[in-house]
Structures are given as C-alpha cells and as structure tokens.
Amino acid sequence: MSTIAPTILTNNITFFRQFATVYSTFAQRIQIDICDGKFVPIPTVSETEIELVNPDAITYDLHMMVQNPSEHLDRILELHPSLCIFHAECSENLLPIFEKLKAANIKTGVAILKTTFPGKIKSYIEAADHVLIFAGQIGKQGSKADMMQLEKVSLIREINPNAEIGWDGGANLENIRAIAHNGIDIINVGSTLSRSQNPSETYKTLDAEINKNGVLI
User: Is residue 73 part of a domain?
Assistant: First the structure.
C-alpha cells in the first residue's frame, strides 16, 4: 500500500513554517525539498534555516537537491531526519555519504532524474534504503508527471528488491491511482496540496483514490 507524503518546497521561511505546521496536523510523513541554487538554479530555504515540527510523531524525509552533499552533512546530522535523499547526478561519490548517514541511524536515499538509467547507478541503488524516481521538473512544483518513469520500478527492484521506492513530480488526483498501483511505496505530493484551499481534505481524497481497487477509469 502506498503512502502519501506532502512535499514542502519554498524559498520563504515563513511559508515553510506554515506548510510544516499545517501538514503535521494530518500527515504522518513529510518530505522537505532543499535546493542549493547550484544543482537547481533557484535556491529554497536551506537546511540551516529550518526546524522539524513534532519530529517524534512525524517521519521526515530530506530531499537534498545539492551539488556537493558533504557541504550539507553536518546540519543534516543535527536535524536527524528519518531519511536523507541525495541525487545520483551530484558531483560527489554518495557511498561515503551513505556510510556516515547510516552510522547516525539515518536512512539513505538516492534520487534519479528522468534521463538517468537505474543500471548506471547500480552501486547507489544497492546501498540505498530508498530510491526516488523523479518524474517532474526539478526544483519546481506543479509540473506535469512523466508517467513513463514508472518503467524504472521493475529495474530498481531487480537491483535492490528491499528498497523503498518513491515518486516525486506531478502527482495529482488524475494520476495518483496509477502511480500507486505500479509499485510506488511513497508518493510525494507538492502543488496539489500546497495550492489547495483545504489541504487536509485534499489529502484524504488522494489517499482514498490510491486505495481503490479494480480497473482504472
């Protein structure tokens, strides 16, 4: 069964706190997107600015869209999220980073962009607890999902059958059922919730949709 994780992506610390507070009232898992302005041109709030709301009750994933993961590691260790995801396409070898995270009891994740073939990063997938399939426009909420990215699920499973698989990019009421029924464990939802007048009710509607059985109509 898939789990929906609201995603926070903003360059405004006030908005970050507002989203974090609202999402923490109904979601059990939240993904925080951090962009450094290098790997992704437009920066967000940084990990040094944020605090985790009610971390004892909520599972937090950090999705680090950064060029040099080691530069961010000290603060990540302080925040101690449940999971930290770095991109396979960054400028550093992720395996030593994974070792440091695991030593601190933080789960490791690797994100792959649309043009990245899972077989090319086999060592990362083998070592990771989580593989994030990125199917939208990086660093931007509200982009259209590339549903062909679902073909990567079976390739990832062949490399690491135990890895949790996440989806990021364009999930909405029209496609979330198809995403959930194609082997995705965690569906990160951004603009569908952040632009909703009632995020809690929208979350419930999305959750009900992924739990429907039968033919997609």
Answer: yes
